[in-house]
UniProtKB/TrEMBL annotation:
The chain crosses the membrane at residues 50-68, 172-193, 229-249, 261-283, 289-309, 330-351, 363-384. Keywords: Membrane, Transferase, Transmembrane, Transmembrane helix. This is diacylglycerol cholinephosphotransferase. It comes from Mycena belliarum. The keyword Oxidoreductase does not apply.
Length: 420
Protein backbone atom coordinates (compact mmCIF):
# COMPACT_ATOMS: atom_id res chain seq x y z
CA UNK A 1 0.00 0.00 0.00
CA UNK A 2 1.55 3.30 -1.10
CA UNK A 3 0.90 6.86 0.03
CA UNK A 4 0.48 8.35 -3.45
CA UNK A 5 -2.74 7.54 -5.36
CA UNK A 6 -2.13 6.55 -8.96
CA UNK A 7 -4.12 9.56 -10.19
CA UNK A 8 -1.88 11.92 -8.20
CA UNK A 9 1.41 10.61 -9.60
CA UNK A 10 1.01 12.67 -12.78
CA UNK A 11 0.93 15.84 -10.68
CA UNK A 12 4.53 15.22 -9.62
CA UNK A 13 5.68 16.30 -13.08
CA UNK A 14 3.78 19.57 -12.75
CA UNK A 15 5.35 20.51 -9.43
CA UNK A 16 7.87 23.34 -9.19
CA UNK A 17 9.25 24.85 -6.01
CA UNK A 18 8.29 28.43 -5.18
CA UNK A 19 9.65 30.38 -2.26
CA UNK A 20 9.85 33.88 -0.82
CA UNK A 21 12.57 34.93 1.62
CA UNK A 22 12.33 38.46 3.00
CA UNK A 23 15.11 38.07 5.54
CA UNK A 24 17.69 40.87 5.29
CA UNK A 25 20.24 38.66 7.05
CA UNK A 26 19.64 35.89 4.55
CA UNK A 27 19.87 38.21 1.54
CA UNK A 28 23.00 40.15 2.41
CA UNK A 29 24.98 37.82 4.67
CA UNK A 30 24.00 34.17 4.42
CA UNK A 31 23.14 33.89 0.72
CA UNK A 32 26.57 35.08 -0.45
CA UNK A 33 28.12 32.53 1.91
CA UNK A 34 25.79 29.76 0.69
CA UNK A 35 26.50 30.61 -2.96
CA UNK A 36 30.20 30.15 -2.26
CA UNK A 37 29.74 27.10 -0.04
CA UNK A 38 27.80 25.14 -2.65
CA UNK A 39 30.69 25.49 -5.12
CA UNK A 40 32.84 23.36 -2.80
CA UNK A 41 30.64 20.35 -3.52
CA UNK A 42 31.36 18.25 -6.63
CA UNK A 43 28.53 17.95 -9.14
CA UNK A 44 28.64 14.20 -8.54
CA UNK A 45 27.14 14.69 -5.04
CA UNK A 46 23.36 14.41 -5.00
CA UNK A 47 21.45 17.20 -3.22
CA UNK A 48 19.66 14.68 -0.99
CA UNK A 49 23.05 13.42 0.14
CA UNK A 50 23.89 16.93 1.38
CA UNK A 51 20.55 17.14 3.21
CA UNK A 52 21.07 13.75 4.84
CA UNK A 53 24.63 14.60 5.91
CA UNK A 54 23.28 17.69 7.67
CA UNK A 55 20.76 15.57 9.57
CA UNK A 56 23.53 13.11 10.51
CA UNK A 57 25.43 15.97 12.16
CA UNK A 58 22.36 16.78 14.25
CA UNK A 59 22.02 13.10 15.20
CA UNK A 60 25.66 13.16 16.31
CA UNK A 61 24.93 16.18 18.52
CA UNK A 62 21.89 14.42 19.97
CA UNK A 63 23.86 11.25 20.70
CA UNK A 64 26.50 13.36 22.46
CA UNK A 65 23.79 14.58 24.84
CA UNK A 66 22.44 11.06 25.36
CA UNK A 67 25.95 9.73 26.08
CA UNK A 68 26.81 12.33 28.71
CA UNK A 69 23.31 12.81 30.10
CA UNK A 70 21.08 9.80 29.40
CA UNK A 71 18.62 10.91 32.09
CA UNK A 72 18.29 14.39 30.52
CA UNK A 73 19.22 16.28 33.66
CA UNK A 74 20.78 19.72 33.46
CA UNK A 75 23.04 21.27 36.09
CA UNK A 76 20.08 21.59 38.44
CA UNK A 77 20.06 17.81 38.63
CA UNK A 78 23.80 17.47 39.13
CA UNK A 79 24.79 16.64 35.53
CA UNK A 80 27.31 18.91 33.83
CA UNK A 81 28.07 18.31 30.16
CA UNK A 82 31.56 19.08 28.88
CA UNK A 83 31.64 22.65 27.60
CA UNK A 84 32.92 21.47 24.21
CA UNK A 85 29.65 19.58 23.71
CA UNK A 86 27.67 22.81 23.53
CA UNK A 87 30.19 24.33 21.12
CA UNK A 88 29.85 21.21 18.94
CA UNK A 89 26.07 21.67 18.98
CA UNK A 90 26.53 25.27 17.87
CA UNK A 91 28.79 24.30 14.99
CA UNK A 92 26.60 21.31 14.09
CA UNK A 93 23.41 23.35 13.90
CA UNK A 94 25.09 26.03 11.80
CA UNK A 95 26.32 23.34 9.43
CA UNK A 96 22.83 21.83 9.30
CA UNK A 97 21.39 25.21 8.35
CA UNK A 98 24.07 25.63 5.67
CA UNK A 99 23.56 22.15 4.25
CA UNK A 100 19.80 22.66 4.29
CA UNK A 101 20.22 25.95 2.41
CA UNK A 102 22.52 24.67 -0.33
CA UNK A 103 20.76 21.40 -1.16
CA UNK A 104 18.33 23.32 -3.37
CA UNK A 105 21.21 25.18 -5.00
CA UNK A 106 22.98 21.86 -5.62
CA UNK A 107 19.75 20.48 -7.09
CA UNK A 108 19.65 23.33 -9.61
CA UNK A 109 23.36 22.90 -10.39
CA UNK A 110 22.86 19.21 -11.14
CA UNK A 111 19.41 19.45 -12.74
CA UNK A 112 17.89 17.39 -9.93
CA UNK A 113 15.35 19.90 -8.61
CA UNK A 114 11.92 18.37 -8.12
CA UNK A 115 9.31 17.02 -5.69
CA UNK A 116 11.59 14.33 -4.25
CA UNK A 117 14.03 16.96 -3.01
CA UNK A 118 11.17 18.95 -1.48
CA UNK A 119 9.90 15.85 0.34
CA UNK A 120 13.36 14.81 1.52
CA UNK A 121 14.27 18.31 2.71
CA UNK A 122 11.08 18.78 4.72
CA UNK A 123 11.31 15.25 6.11
CA UNK A 124 14.76 15.95 7.54
CA UNK A 125 13.61 19.36 8.82
CA UNK A 126 10.71 17.71 10.65
CA UNK A 127 13.08 15.36 12.49
CA UNK A 128 15.54 18.16 13.24
CA UNK A 129 12.74 20.24 14.77
CA UNK A 130 12.23 17.88 17.70
CA UNK A 131 15.91 17.08 18.21
CA UNK A 132 16.87 20.76 18.35
CA UNK A 133 14.01 21.57 20.73
CA UNK A 134 15.36 18.95 23.14
CA UNK A 135 18.97 20.12 22.75
CA UNK A 136 18.06 23.80 23.08
CA UNK A 137 16.10 23.21 26.29
CA UNK A 138 19.06 21.32 27.71
CA UNK A 139 21.38 24.22 26.82
CA UNK A 140 18.90 26.67 28.42
CA UNK A 141 19.02 24.63 31.64
CA UNK A 142 15.31 23.79 31.41
CA UNK A 143 15.72 20.02 31.45
CA UNK A 144 12.71 17.92 32.35
CA UNK A 145 10.15 20.67 32.80
CA UNK A 146 6.90 21.95 31.37
CA UNK A 147 8.91 24.72 29.71
CA UNK A 148 10.56 22.02 27.58
CA UNK A 149 7.14 20.58 26.70
CA UNK A 150 5.86 24.03 25.74
CA UNK A 151 9.01 24.61 23.69
CA UNK A 152 8.46 21.36 21.82
CA UNK A 153 4.84 22.25 21.14
CA UNK A 154 5.66 25.79 19.96
CA UNK A 155 8.43 24.56 17.67
CA UNK A 156 6.21 21.93 16.09
CA UNK A 157 3.38 24.45 15.77
CA UNK A 158 5.66 26.82 13.84
CA UNK A 159 6.65 24.02 11.47
CA UNK A 160 3.03 22.96 11.01
CA UNK A 161 2.02 26.56 10.26
CA UNK A 162 4.71 26.90 7.60
CA UNK A 163 3.64 23.62 5.96
CA UNK A 164 -0.06 24.55 6.18
CA UNK A 165 0.70 27.93 4.63
CA UNK A 166 2.75 26.39 1.80
CA UNK A 167 -0.06 23.94 1.00
CA UNK A 168 -2.62 26.72 0.57
CA UNK A 169 -0.44 29.42 -1.03
CA UNK A 170 1.74 27.17 -3.19
CA UNK A 171 4.97 28.70 -1.92
CA UNK A 172 7.26 28.61 1.08
CA UNK A 173 7.15 32.01 2.76
CA UNK A 174 9.97 33.18 5.05
CA UNK A 175 9.40 36.60 6.59
CA UNK A 176 11.83 39.20 7.90
CA UNK A 177 12.29 36.96 10.97
CA UNK A 178 11.86 33.24 10.41
CA UNK A 179 12.72 30.03 12.21
CA UNK A 180 14.94 28.53 9.47
CA UNK A 181 17.13 31.66 9.37
CA UNK A 182 17.14 33.97 12.40
CA UNK A 183 15.60 31.37 14.72
CA UNK A 184 18.34 28.83 14.04
CA UNK A 185 21.07 31.45 14.44
CA UNK A 186 19.61 32.42 17.83
CA UNK A 187 19.87 28.80 18.98
CA UNK A 188 23.42 28.63 17.59
CA UNK A 189 24.19 31.60 19.83
CA UNK A 190 22.49 29.95 22.83
CA UNK A 191 24.67 26.87 22.42
CA UNK A 192 27.81 29.02 22.20
CA UNK A 193 26.88 30.98 25.33
CA UNK A 194 26.13 27.76 27.23
CA UNK A 195 29.52 26.45 26.15
CA UNK A 196 31.20 29.60 27.44
CA UNK A 197 29.37 30.17 30.74
CA UNK A 198 27.51 26.91 31.32
CA UNK A 199 23.74 26.29 31.12
CA UNK A 200 23.23 27.76 34.60
CA UNK A 201 23.92 31.17 33.05
CA UNK A 202 20.35 31.15 31.72
CA UNK A 203 18.94 31.01 35.28
CA UNK A 204 20.25 34.55 35.81
CA UNK A 205 17.49 37.11 36.23
CA UNK A 206 17.18 39.64 33.43
CA UNK A 207 17.42 42.57 35.87
CA UNK A 208 20.48 41.00 37.48
CA UNK A 209 22.06 40.44 34.08
CA UNK A 210 21.44 44.05 33.06
CA UNK A 211 22.58 45.34 36.50
CA UNK A 212 19.22 47.02 37.04
CA UNK A 213 18.29 45.51 40.40
CA UNK A 214 19.01 48.84 42.12
CA UNK A 215 17.26 50.93 39.47
CA UNK A 216 14.11 52.91 40.37
CA UNK A 217 10.97 50.76 40.43
CA UNK A 218 13.12 47.63 39.93
CA UNK A 219 11.60 46.07 43.05
CA UNK A 220 8.21 46.20 41.35
CA UNK A 221 9.39 44.28 38.28
CA UNK A 222 9.93 40.51 38.21
CA UNK A 223 13.55 39.47 37.85
CA UNK A 224 12.55 36.91 35.22
CA UNK A 225 15.24 34.29 34.44
CA UNK A 226 16.76 34.62 30.99
CA UNK A 227 15.55 31.16 29.95
CA UNK A 228 11.98 32.01 30.94
CA UNK A 229 12.30 35.30 29.08
CA UNK A 230 13.40 33.41 25.97
CA UNK A 231 10.29 31.23 26.24
CA UNK A 232 8.12 34.36 26.41
CA UNK A 233 9.89 35.70 23.33
CA UNK A 234 9.27 32.40 21.53
CA UNK A 235 5.56 32.58 22.43
CA UNK A 236 5.36 36.10 20.98
CA UNK A 237 7.12 34.85 17.85
CA UNK A 238 4.59 32.03 17.51
CA UNK A 239 1.72 34.49 17.80
CA UNK A 240 3.27 36.70 15.13
CA UNK A 241 3.76 33.70 12.81
CA UNK A 242 0.14 32.63 13.29
CA UNK A 243 -1.10 36.04 12.18
CA UNK A 244 1.41 36.28 9.33
CA UNK A 245 0.62 32.81 7.98
CA UNK A 246 -3.12 33.36 8.19
CA UNK A 247 -2.79 36.70 6.38
CA UNK A 248 -0.90 35.05 3.52
CA UNK A 249 -3.36 32.14 3.31
CA UNK A 250 -6.36 34.45 3.45
CA UNK A 251 -4.92 36.56 0.63
CA UNK A 252 -4.35 33.45 -1.48
CA UNK A 253 -7.87 32.16 -0.83
CA UNK A 254 -9.47 35.49 -1.77
CA UNK A 255 -7.38 35.67 -4.96
CA UNK A 256 -8.53 32.19 -6.00
CA UNK A 257 -12.17 32.77 -4.90
CA UNK A 258 -12.01 30.03 -2.26
CA UNK A 259 -13.31 29.83 1.29
CA UNK A 260 -11.22 31.65 3.88
CA UNK A 261 -12.77 29.61 6.69
CA UNK A 262 -11.93 26.09 5.58
CA UNK A 263 -8.11 26.54 5.87
CA UNK A 264 -8.56 27.54 9.52
CA UNK A 265 -10.31 24.25 10.21
CA UNK A 266 -7.26 22.44 8.81
CA UNK A 267 -5.24 23.77 11.74
CA UNK A 268 -7.29 21.53 14.00
CA UNK A 269 -5.35 18.33 13.20
CA UNK A 270 -2.30 19.78 14.93
CA UNK A 271 -4.40 20.93 17.87
CA UNK A 272 -5.88 17.43 18.16
CA UNK A 273 -2.54 15.61 17.92
CA UNK A 274 -0.81 17.95 20.39
CA UNK A 275 -3.80 17.73 22.73
CA UNK A 276 -3.54 13.93 22.80
CA UNK A 277 0.16 14.09 23.71
CA UNK A 278 -0.50 16.65 26.46
CA UNK A 279 -3.40 14.57 27.78
CA UNK A 280 -1.07 11.59 28.13
CA UNK A 281 1.75 13.65 29.63
CA UNK A 282 -0.52 15.26 32.23
CA UNK A 283 -1.80 11.96 33.64
CA UNK A 284 -2.27 11.85 37.43
CA UNK A 285 0.63 10.59 39.52
CA UNK A 286 -0.65 7.14 40.36
CA UNK A 287 2.76 5.84 41.43
CA UNK A 288 6.21 7.18 42.32
CA UNK A 289 6.64 9.44 39.29
CA UNK A 290 5.23 10.77 36.04
CA UNK A 291 6.68 10.72 32.53
CA UNK A 292 7.91 14.29 32.79
CA UNK A 293 9.86 13.45 35.96
CA UNK A 294 11.43 10.25 34.68
CA UNK A 295 13.95 9.05 32.12
CA UNK A 296 11.00 8.38 29.78
CA UNK A 297 10.73 12.11 29.05
CA UNK A 298 13.10 12.19 26.06
CA UNK A 299 11.77 8.94 24.47
CA UNK A 300 8.26 10.39 24.85
CA UNK A 301 9.24 13.64 23.11
CA UNK A 302 11.00 11.69 20.33
CA UNK A 303 7.92 9.53 19.75
CA UNK A 304 5.80 12.68 19.60
CA UNK A 305 8.26 14.22 17.13
CA UNK A 306 8.20 11.16 14.87
CA UNK A 307 4.40 11.15 14.80
CA UNK A 308 4.49 14.83 13.96
CA UNK A 309 7.01 14.18 11.16
CA UNK A 310 4.62 11.57 9.74
CA UNK A 311 1.78 14.09 9.90
CA UNK A 312 3.57 16.98 8.18
CA UNK A 313 5.23 14.59 5.73
CA UNK A 314 1.81 13.66 4.43
CA UNK A 315 0.96 17.38 4.22
CA UNK A 316 4.02 18.08 2.05
CA UNK A 317 3.17 15.04 -0.08
CA UNK A 318 -0.33 16.42 -0.59
CA UNK A 319 1.24 19.72 -1.64
CA UNK A 320 3.62 18.29 -4.26
CA UNK A 321 0.94 15.96 -5.66
CA UNK A 322 -1.91 18.51 -5.51
CA UNK A 323 -3.92 16.09 -3.37
CA UNK A 324 -6.43 16.59 -0.58
CA UNK A 325 -5.15 17.86 2.76
CA UNK A 326 -4.58 14.94 5.18
CA UNK A 327 -6.67 15.87 8.19
CA UNK A 328 -6.50 12.42 9.84
CA UNK A 329 -3.50 10.32 10.94
CA UNK A 330 -3.89 6.79 12.23
CA UNK A 331 -0.96 7.25 14.64
CA UNK A 332 -3.28 9.29 16.86
CA UNK A 333 -5.22 6.14 17.78
CA UNK A 334 -2.29 4.47 19.53
CA UNK A 335 -1.37 7.60 21.51
CA UNK A 336 -5.01 8.25 22.40
CA UNK A 337 -5.40 4.72 23.77
CA UNK A 338 -2.22 5.16 25.83
CA UNK A 339 -3.38 8.58 27.05
CA UNK A 340 -6.80 7.26 28.11
CA UNK A 341 -5.17 4.30 29.83
CA UNK A 342 -2.83 6.59 31.79
CA UNK A 343 -5.75 8.82 32.82
CA UNK A 344 -8.13 6.03 33.91
CA UNK A 345 -7.69 7.06 37.59
CA UNK A 346 -9.12 10.45 36.64
CA UNK A 347 -11.68 9.28 34.08
CA UNK A 348 -13.00 6.13 35.73
CA UNK A 349 -11.52 6.09 39.22
CA UNK A 350 -9.54 2.93 38.58
CA UNK A 351 -5.94 1.95 37.92
CA UNK A 352 -4.60 1.89 34.33
CA UNK A 353 -4.87 -1.36 32.41
CA UNK A 354 -1.47 -1.20 30.69
CA UNK A 355 0.58 1.37 32.61
CA UNK A 356 0.13 -0.24 36.00
CA UNK A 357 3.69 0.48 37.15
CA UNK A 358 6.73 2.52 36.20
CA UNK A 359 8.18 -0.51 34.39
CA UNK A 360 4.99 -1.14 32.40
CA UNK A 361 4.71 2.53 31.54
CA UNK A 362 8.28 2.38 30.21
CA UNK A 363 7.27 -0.52 27.97
CA UNK A 364 4.32 1.47 26.59
CA UNK A 365 6.43 4.60 25.94
CA UNK A 366 9.25 2.71 24.23
CA UNK A 367 6.76 0.67 22.23
CA UNK A 368 5.17 3.95 21.11
CA UNK A 369 8.62 5.19 20.09
CA UNK A 370 9.29 2.00 18.11
CA UNK A 371 5.90 2.10 16.36
CA UNK A 372 6.30 5.80 15.54
CA UNK A 373 9.77 5.20 14.10
CA UNK A 374 8.59 2.22 12.07
CA UNK A 375 5.63 4.18 10.70
CA UNK A 376 7.79 7.13 9.65
CA UNK A 377 10.47 4.92 8.09
CA UNK A 378 7.74 3.09 6.19
CA UNK A 379 6.31 6.39 4.99
CA UNK A 380 9.71 7.64 3.79
CA UNK A 381 10.55 4.34 2.11
CA UNK A 382 7.27 4.03 0.23
CA UNK A 383 7.19 7.66 -0.87
CA UNK A 384 10.79 7.60 -2.10
CA UNK A 385 10.08 4.31 -3.91
CA UNK A 386 6.96 5.67 -5.61
CA UNK A 387 8.53 8.98 -6.70
CA UNK A 388 11.81 7.50 -7.93
CA UNK A 389 10.06 4.73 -9.85
CA UNK A 390 7.54 7.06 -11.46
CA UNK A 391 10.01 9.79 -12.38
CA UNK A 392 12.88 7.47 -13.25
CA UNK A 393 15.34 8.98 -10.80
CA UNK A 394 17.35 7.88 -7.79
CA UNK A 395 17.35 9.44 -4.33
CA UNK A 396 21.12 9.66 -3.81
CA UNK A 397 22.37 9.53 -7.39
CA UNK A 398 23.09 12.45 -9.70
CA UNK A 399 22.02 11.96 -13.29
CA UNK A 400 23.73 13.44 -16.33
CA UNK A 401 22.44 14.11 -19.83
CA UNK A 402 23.98 12.34 -22.80
CA UNK A 403 24.60 14.01 -26.16
CA UNK A 404 20.94 13.52 -27.09
CA UNK A 405 19.73 15.23 -23.90
CA UNK A 406 18.56 12.01 -22.23
CA UNK A 407 19.11 11.68 -18.49
CA UNK A 408 21.65 9.01 -17.55
CA UNK A 409 22.11 7.31 -14.17
CA UNK A 410 25.77 7.53 -13.10
CA UNK A 411 25.54 4.64 -10.63
CA UNK A 412 27.88 1.81 -11.77
CA UNK A 413 26.15 -1.45 -12.60
CA UNK A 414 27.36 -4.84 -11.42
CA UNK A 415 29.46 -5.29 -14.56
CA UNK A 416 31.23 -1.97 -13.98
CA UNK A 417 29.38 -0.17 -16.80
CA UNK A 418 27.12 2.80 -16.22
CA UNK A 419 23.48 1.89 -16.35
CA UNK A 420 20.80 4.00 -18.02
Amino acid sequence: MGYIPAAALQNLKKYSYKGVDKSVLSKYVLNPFWNWFVTLWPLSVAPNTITFLGLCIVFLNFMTMIYYDPAYLTEKGGVVLPRWAYFSWSIGLFLYQSFDAIDGKQARRTGMAGPLGEMFDHGCDAINTTLEAILACHALNLGRSWWTVVSQMATLANFYLTTWEEYHTGQLYLGVFSGPVEGILMIVGIYAISGTYGPSFWDTGVLTFLHLTDAPLANKLPDLPLNDLFMVFAACGLGFNVLSSYRNVRRAMITSNKSTTWPILLLMPFVASAGIQMFWLMHPRYDDSAIINSTLFVPFLCAWGLQFAHQVGRMILAHVTSSRFPWWDWMWVWSLVAAIDANLPLLAGRAPLMQTSAANRAVVVYLTLAISLAAYVRFCTLVIHDITNFMGIACFTVRKRDKDGVWQDTTPAADGKKKV
